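Our example pasted here:


***
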Amino acid sequence: MSNPWFKRAAALLVVVVIALVAWRMVDHGKSAKVSYELGDVDKGTVEKSISSTGSVAALVTVEVGSQISGQVAELHADFNSQVKKGQLLAVIDPQTYTQRMASAEADLAVANATLGTQQANLKKAQTTLAQAQRDYERQKQLADKQLVAVSCF
């Protein structure tokens, strides 16, 4: 490799490669063309539109709840709907509460019937007591006058 001819050939090859690269760069810079597109002028409305991505958060969030629970039968407002004070939002299925009320009314009727029976039994017992007291008083008066046997008294 110490041959001078080889060194000259390598140097010449490097110079040729550099020259080719420089020529290609200069050639591309000159060959860039600008193109124009022409058209007729029309009248029309200008629309403004904005496109964006991201998350949206509510300024005011209100939690809505109810004092009773149950299945919703009717829904009159949806998520993010604007509502006014006093507006009906939902109707809870009344079937559960209707059944509970009917059951409570039946229990009340049974309790009233039982109370009536107990009152009748009390009246009967009071009548029996009054009759027994009258019988006792009559037997005592007869016994005091010795008009009945002592075994009856």
Summary: The radius of gyration is 56 Å. The chain has two helices and two strands. The chain has a mean pLDDT of 84.
